[in-house]
Structures are given as C-alpha cells and as structure tokens.
Design a protein that fits this description.
6 helices; two-stranded parallel sheet; Helix Hairpins; 3% strand; 155 residues
Length: 155
C-alpha cells in the first residue's frame, strides 16, 4: 500500500492506471467455466447445506460473541443471514433461502463482470448443457476442452 501511494504521488496517476501502458508482460491463456443456472443453483444449495451442517452457525456465534454484531466483515454473504437468524429476525429456513438467493445473485454479477472485462477468456462449453448429468462425464468433457485449448496455446 505504501509503495502504491508513493507511485501515485510521484506520477499523479492512480496506481491501477500505471500498468495500462504498453504490452502485457506475459502471454496468458484464460479459461472460464460458466455452468447453466440450474447446475449453479444445485451446487450453491449443496454448499450452503454443508456449511450449516459443519458448523457455520456456531462459528458465527463465536465470532459475534468475540467481536460484536457491528463488524463490517459480518456484511458478507452467509454471515449477515446467519446473524439475522441468531437475532431472531428470521427463521433458519428463511436464512438459508436468503443465503442461496444472495450467493446466486453474486455469482451472476461475477459472470457479468468476467464477460465484460475479460473478453480474451475462452469460455468452455458446459457439458451440463449437453445433458451429461454424471459428474465424471462432465469433468472429462471439460478436461478435453481445456487440454485442447492449452495444446493450441502452447503450439
């Protein structure tokens, strides 16, 4: 941070604007995954259920006891919904539903950002859209696509 401030003060430009001049230092292959919404929702739901099962509520209780409710970190997805539950503003079921909704919204915003600002990325065709429901077939299909891109990039 100190170095970034020094550069900004000396150049009169933001630190983030410094590297925009000239050619990139490296030739980079960017590969992206974009699952269909139904698959994303399924994965988010399973992940949140696992987080609840493995102690998210107790973790939040301990953190709130140690630091209080007003920490900025508690504005993060999952924490704020569990805190609403702990404060008895909503039920656990409502909390989990909100966690799912907010996580999916966040993932959609991330995808929008990646597609807008990362036009050089190669987006793999998701095998789930090809009706390959078994995970091993999905992974094999994605792996073939990725290896093909890497081979072409390195040749």
């Amino acid at each position: 941070v100190i170095r970034a401030l020094e550069i900004a003060l000396l150049s009169g430009k933001k630190f983030s604007e410094q590297r925009k001049v000239g050619e990139p230092l490296y030739n980079v292959l960017e590969i992206g995954l974009n699952p269909p919404l139904e698959i994303l929702k399924e994965k988010v739901t399973k992940r949140i259920a696992l987080m609840i099962k493995t102690g998210l509520i107790n973790e939040v209780k301990r953190l709130v006891k140690k630091y209080g409710y007003k920490q900025r970190a508690f504005d993060a997805i999952d924490y704020r919904e569990i805190i609403d539950y702990l404060r008895k503003n909503i039920s656990l079921k409502e909390s989990i539903m909100q966690m799912n909704t907010n996580t999916i919204r966040y993932a959609k915003r991330q995808m929008t950002w990646f597609k807008k600002y990362n036009s050089s990325a190669h987006w793999l065709k998701n095998p789930a859209s090809l009706k390959l429901r078994r995970a091993s077939k999905n992974e094999a299909c994605l792996r073939r696509q990725a290896f093909g891109l890497v081979k072409k990039f390195l040749d």
